[in-house]
């Protein structure tokens, strides 16, 4: 099983969403080739907000993850973007990108739920 969170740094460095989607496609192909179950995590918000259109690019990539990849591909999603809002106190490190211990604990709980869902599918 592979639990994958990617795209945050790429989008912060102004990599185009189509390129990030291509990187995700590479991860998906590798998992399919190795017959690994895949849990894809959405790109979380951060202190960038919408500077340079970050929010729109992030939403585009997350839409790809939730609609195209997970809907049609049958992969499992872990929606950290929807479940850990940037505004929630104590979840994000002062650097505005990484989670705090409390935030990582929440990510872990979300991943456990996603992994349990995969295991129940059989």
Task: Summarize the model shown.
The protein is mainly alpha-helical.
Description:
With 122 residues, this protein is mostly helical. The chain contains five helices and three strands, in the order βααβαβαα. Strands 1-2-3 form a three-stranded parallel β-sheet, with helices on both faces. Helix 2 (17-33) runs parallel beside helix 3 (54-73). The chain is globular, with a radius of gyration of 14 Å.
List unreliable stretches of 5+ residues: none
**For this structure, what is the CATH class?**
Alpha Beta
Tally of strands: 3
Query: In the residues, how many domains can be counted?
Result: 1
Mean pLDDT: 92
Instruction: Assign an overall shape.
Output: globular
Question: What's the story with the biggest beta sheet?
Answer: 3 strands, parallel
Instruction: Give helix and strand order, one letter per element, not per position.
Output: EHHEHEHH
How do the strands line up in the largest sheet?
A: 1-2-3
Classify the fold: give the CATH topology.
Rossmann fold
The total count of helices amounts to 5
Measured between the Cα atoms of the first and last residue, the distance is 13 Å
Radius of gyration: 14 Å
Percent helix, as a range, is: 40-55%
CATH architecture annotation name = 3-Layer(aba) Sandwich
CATH superfamily: SGNH hydrolase
Beta strand %: 5-15%
């Amino acid at each position: 099983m592979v639990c994958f969170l990617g795209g945050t740094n790429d989008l912060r460095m102004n990599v185009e969403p189509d390129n990030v989607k291509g990187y995700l496609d590479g991860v998906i192909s590798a998992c399919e080739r190795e017959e690994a179950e895949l849990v894809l995590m959405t790109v979380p918000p951060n202190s960038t907000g919408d500077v340079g259109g970050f929010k729109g690019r992030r939403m585009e990539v997350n839409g790809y993850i939730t609609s195209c990849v997970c809907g049609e591909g049958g992969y499992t999603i872990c929606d950290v973007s929807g479940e850990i809002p940037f505004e929630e106190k104590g979840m994000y490190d002062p650097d505005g990108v990484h989670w705090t211990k409390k935030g990582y604990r929440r990510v872990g709980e979300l991943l456990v739920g996603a992994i349990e869902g995969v295991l129940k599918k059989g």
